[in-house]
Amino acid sequence: MSNWNQSMRNDDRNDDKPPYSRVFVVCNKQLRVEDLRPAFEVYGQIEDIHMPRDRITGESKGIAYIKYTKTSSAATAIKDLHLKTIANSSKPVRVMVATHKNENHNPNEDKYKRLFIKVHKEVTESELRQHFSEFGQVHSIHLQRDKLTEECRGFAYVNYTSFLDAAMAFERCDRKYKAIFATPKEELKRTRNSIENFAESFHSSNSSIIKDSFSDHYNPSRGEMHKRDSVTSLIKSKPNNYDTICVTCSPQVPQKYIDRLFNIIPGMTACKYTSDSFNGYCKAIITYADEKSASYAVERLNNFEFPSGEIISVKPDDNPLSKAANNLSNIVNNFKNAIDTANPDLVQLAEAIAQASTLIQAATSGPGLRDIKADSHQTDFCSVSLPPPQPLANSSSRVAQRCFLVFKPHPPPVSILKDAFCRFGDLIDVSTFPNKTFGFAKYASIRAAQEAIKTLHGATLCDIKLKVLEADERPSKDDKIIIDEENNVDHNTDRKRIKLHDEDSSMS
Known about the structure:
Keywords: RNA-binding. Residues 480-508 are annotated as: Disordered. Residues 21-100, 113-187, 417-473 form the RRM domain. GO terms for molecular function: RNA binding. The chain has 5 domains: 13-97, RRM (RNA recognition motif) domain (Alpha-Beta Plaits), CATH 3.30.70; 110-182, Alpha-Beta Plaits (2-Layer Sandwich); 202-316, Alpha-Beta Plaits (2-Layer Sandwich); 322-370; 401-506, 2-Layer Sandwich (Alpha-Beta Plaits). By secondary structure, the chain is α+β, with helices and mostly antiparallel strands. It is built from 15 helices and 19 strands. The longest helix has 30 residues, at 185-214. The radius of gyration is 27 Å and the shape is elongated.
């Protein structure tokens, strides 16, 4: 990777967790941490206060960053303290949401007031307004509908009149809505434009390098095949007995950017792209004409990072069924060509069927799958040995303990998580969140949860690093109502709250 790419990775680009829970304070240079803390801790638990100083003089710069454990605490502090005087200072302080270095600050940005929620397709606007009005003044609700059928697409936007109202709804609304702060359209556009501009410049700069590299070897009379072979001959990577790679990217990016990036390496013949919007990542199976190009793609593009923060993971696709599917596709295409050009040769058809049968038999009875069938303890997707799968507990079972899960670079599919975590027994459910790198596993017994923590903490699932911790339970007076989805009955029970540490940056 380039020095630029490494510097991007070292930069603190991660969002605060929970979102918008860190405030930026402009204050008198004479104020100290001891002066700020009493004024700000009134609004909630403070994780950290940082007051930058001049590197040469050691004098305070007159600014501070205050990190709360809750978004609503930050929102309340902004509402009450902005342009007010604190401590012994006669100068009013300015309090606002802390933004990233590359963002222009705007204290009235709508992104602090708008929530994105998941809804069922029969939901009505009045139903949503009734629920979300409990947390503050709702400005508008927009149900996303299909342009042709007018059917609800399964999500909606709730706009509040203030950041504090949106923060209260984000923390207290029914969990079934999976509320997150919505990213403004113009910000998404800027992000996509930065990716597109980078892809264009990266592609053109590398294309020119490739062109210069093989210009002395290219013979126009021999055509494109010789051109590609000349470029491939310059690749120093050793072939590793695979020509297909598996690419995952989190957060997800459109297929055209994956295509452009991997097409820089000569010989790409196919790109099969899928996306998982709920879990916030995309996947592509890319095939090259030769093994050297595939090896080079893994070597050069694994852990590549786009300017806007998306990270891709590249590894060989060693799934025998995928390889069999590609070979079968070639057989079918060859036979179709034979039908189109002339009468099909029945002998050729018989050979194609025999070859297909051989491929299927090899794929379904190869060493990898045969070993899995023979030994239910075998789990190729996990880096540690796991016990055999066990049935899930009843979904209505009482939660005895929750495990807090942290993933890097993105969550694996929920089916993989359930497969891994059910093996300790008494698993109720595993959940992840869109565009987030954490999740939860709920167990009906403490024993099973502790076994999962002991076994899976520090392991990898599908090449994704995993941390499994005991969920920190701290009752909150401000967060006590859980809505029973089936009976619509309010239960006055303490809702478990997680203090999120910066687990992502600590995972290496």
